Model the fold of this input.
Amino acid sequence: MILFSKIISSLQGNPEAYLSYIALSPSVALVSAISCIRGYFQGKCNMIPTALSQVIEQAVKLTFGLCLCYFINGSPAVKGGLACLAVTLSELVATFYLLICYKSGKSHTQNTLILSFKRLIATLLPIVITSLTLPISRVFDSFTIVNLLKTFTSDASSLYGIYTGSVESVAGVPIAICYGVATASLPKISKAKAEGNFKEVKALIKKAISLTLFLSTLAGLVLFFFSYQVTDLLFKSFPQDKKIITAKLLSLSFFTVVGLSLVQTLNACLIAYGKPLTPCAFLSIGVAIKILLQLVLLKNPEINVFGALYSDIVCYFVAVFLDLLYIIYTIYRTRGKIKV
Done:
């Protein structure tokens, strides 16, 4: 990220964004460490370290981000770099917190079952691919959205920033809350599956889907009906024309909140059930359709940046539809105990 920051940012149509890449690069290693430690605690059905570390992340990111951008003068590119530096600082603090939690525990990995390397790779590879599918599509977005919008508007970077920096950030809050349902469901469903308790597996999957649907719909409806109020509250400095675009995008992000929240939970349920390749395949189909739609919709000046939102919505609901079909026909239509 550091070595190729200028090349990547130039290809994305934002040459000055290289400072943000440099500031974010240390967080890659930190997030990797955080994921491992969180996974250790989640595997023990202890969600407290994960929850507290996420709160710490957000608090540090917000505090340092606002302070750095307020007290240090510079261009928008410099301010963006400072905001990204705050992200790296937040990951650093969260890493130290989780390491303290891990060291203070009574039992560690040497007391748990050690899997063979071959089995470990066979288990992790599909999960890693599934986890990478959406981030890779986001990388594709960063190259296509700005460059396609530039064909008919000089405001492409600003519109891309509104969608990814403003709208997706706000919509990401309820999605992150619903992610807790997915995280909590995985070890419980996996345990019930290992014990051959089929009734419990079905009950847990149903509970996870119902809770995710309830929370995401509730949060999505708030965005749908109060998008203009949320925009005025959070983005006061936006010009009026940008506020209108932001509010409209936020209103339609109701479908994004519900769709992506369900994708997270359904993926977790299928992975816990021992079918990690299935969500990977279904999500890949959704992403492929999304890319095709983007290439068509973003070329239309009347649709504009909304083409990115529409393609995301279609992607999530294709994945949800396929996941639900698979769960219904392979889990809920099965009778008797699970073959372990």
Observations:
- Residues 130 and 281 are 8 Å apart (CA to CA).
- DSSP finds eleven helices and no strands in the chain.
